[in-house]
Design goal:
220 residues, alpha/beta, 2 domains, five-stranded parallel sheet, four-stranded antiparallel sheet, 25% strand, elongated
Length: 220
């Protein structure tokens, strides 16, 4: 997943970033005063506050961004009142240093799964399919999909890696009463491929399956 690490001491955070990267995650770093700009980009899925002093205003700035992002606070302060303050301010989890890296990775994955499910979000490679906004969020930001484009991509995503016949696509996306051009599926597949390029979703592709239809493949 793409993780935003909010830090005020890059040297102190070097180990954290190295471990996260080795765990297969993409790390985006910024200072506390850069959070608003990064939040507007929307190119991350989880936020980690790794700062010597936890600034509630910075967390609020992230919470006011266009997309709700789960946040874990890393802190040397174990005081219960401080933890309660952070959680009530919008943090989703609070981990006290020193912590075990495997525990942090497990908490990140569990939090990500819970938020994705509750928010109607689905991970496809390096992109996210947003059911509520009918949008594809990739490394180049958000690309909006028409209702038909979204329905088609969601239908393929429900059968990720499996061949999906044109008849299945027509029945589930256009409906059993559809009357129109026979190549409408191929036309919309072309639209989706262009949208994937716009979103820079390099890990996602739609493959043609001879004599059957199409297959959605997502890696990473």
């Amino acid at each position: 997943m793409h993780i935003l690490v909010v830090e005020d001491d890059p040297r102190a955070s070097a180990t954290l970033k190295r471990e996260l990267t080795q765990g297969g995650h993409v790390v985006i770093s910024c200072r506390p005063d850069q959070v608003i700009a990064r939040a507007r980009d929307g190119l991350f899925e989880v936020g980690l506050f790794d700062t010597s002093t936890f600034d509630l205003a910075t967390l609020n700035a992230l919470r006011d961004s266009s997309r709700s992002v789960p946040v874990i606070v890393l802190s040397a302060v174990s005081d219960v009142a401080r933890r309660v303050e952070a959680l009530r301010a919008g943090a989703d989890d609070y981990l006290v240093r020193p912590y075990d890296m495997q525990e942090l990775l497990a908490r990140l994955e569990a939090l990500h799964r819970r938020v994705m499910s509750a928010g109607g979000l689905r991970k496809l490679g390096n992109a996210i399919l947003d059911a509520h906004r009918h949008a594809l969020i990739g490394s180049d930001g958000e690309t909006r999909l028409t209702s038909r484009e979204y329905a088609l991509l969601a239908h393929l995503a429900d059968r990720l890696g499996q061949p999906v016949s044109r008849s299945s696509i027509l029945e589930n996306v256009w409906g059993t009463q559809f009357v129109g051009e026979g190549n409408v599926v191929d036309v919309y597949i072309g639209y989706l491929r262009n949208k994937l390029k716009q979103a820079a979703a390099e890990d996602v592709r739609i493959e043609a399956v001879r004599r059957v239809g199409y297959r959605l493949v997502a890696t990473g």
